[in-house]
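As promised in the previous annual report, we have extended the structural survey to additional targets. Below is the entry for Peptidylprolyl isomerase.
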Amino acid sequence: MKKVISSILFVLVGCFLTAHTFGQGQGVSLNKIIAKVDNYYVLRSDLEEAYQSYVGQNQTPPQKCQLLESLVINKMMLAKAEIDSVVVEEKLVDNELDQRMQYMAQQFGSEKNIVEAYGKSLEMLKSELRQQVKDQKIVQKMQNKITTDVKVTPRDVRKFFDAIPRDSLPYMPAEVEVGQIVRFAKPTKEQKEALRQRLMDLKKRVEAGEDFAKLAKENSEDVGSAEKGGDLGFAKRGMMVAPFEGAALRLKPNELSDVIESDFGLHLIQLLETRGAEYHARHILLRPDYNRLDLAGPTRYLDSLRNLIQIDSLKFDKAAKDFSEDKNTADAGGLLRDPQSGGSRLAMDGTMEYALFQLLDTMQVGSFSKPLPYRTEDGKSAMRVLYFKSKAVPHTADFSKDFEKLQTIVLQNKKNRAIDDWFRKSVADVYITVDPEFHNCRIFGTTQNSAATLGSNE
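The corresponding structure token record, generated without further manual editing, is:
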């Protein structure tokens, strides 16, 4: 079998696990163990989820043997990480878990809808998802460790391009450049005051002797830290947002702050201890109900900006830098970035967000959308104006026009080879078995044993 394992691996690690993640409606057969790497298992449901992740993104799925090989390498990385004592910080797992739950809330409309859809509490769903998130973080860390020295030069890209027969050059899909200016919906003074008063009441209760950790678990809307009594662990200076860090560092150990406002909401902070350049704090976070915020203000603001841009009194990129509240795109003049290449050209195909694809299909290059409702990755309500900057028609790959894409391919290929080499060298350190049902799948570097029928590498 031709080896495309690692290229699939990178896709699998980053994919968002869907409803199948929680075992909803799965038959017993889907829970059958089909491969084992030391004490780590691959279930039939894992293979089906990996396959469906491609289908859900309108991509042609690889052969299931190739997917199985990739899943085995994932488990092998976990086994080797355990041997090599490679770990990830719990805080990173918590942050990723929070983002995924927020994403699900956006997809389902609310947390209540998630609970109704799965018939499980949010706490139970998070518990089921947490280990998978942690495993993915460990695999990513192992991948980074293996490929940290992999570099690509322009000469490598040229060599790769020149080696492709002219009649076999890939056909590139239509690509677009899109900019955005984002303005967040702001809570009213009344909404802020209500949250502020709630936190002041909680502060009084702590000062009267109630347990801060208990109150954080019951009230804080920072889901990741709430489960740990609001504990954020040790943080180096510069890690937290400035209002939070400034307030925390002004406190003495065990002292409570006044109510502090940041981009995340309103905080009540307690400093626990300091250690050199690090500090240990916990907090209770309250946030406004983003579904009830008034979008009229951001809409009027963006309408005015759009009018100035359309009459050429203000350039879009300058308006984005000066007025957009989306920090991820403002510094780039509002341009959206391809998450893989980091470039500004986005493939206008099945990988693009469907709502954006539909909108661009109705716009002319050089035009600006009206202010549109927008929900950020962390769940905030906002409005945005989109700028359809450019469109490249589908074309045969060209070295100059498609250098960024070609560079990404070459880099990925080098990383794939590095992981394949690592697998061959490390396979002897673990015990791999595969169910006889998949005897035609060839997990390279393995040997036949009593627990499974394994093919040899060809």
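The chain has three domains: 5-153+401-438, 172-186+293-396, 189-287. The first helix runs from residue 5 to 14. These points will be discussed at the next consortium meeting with the crystallography subgroup.
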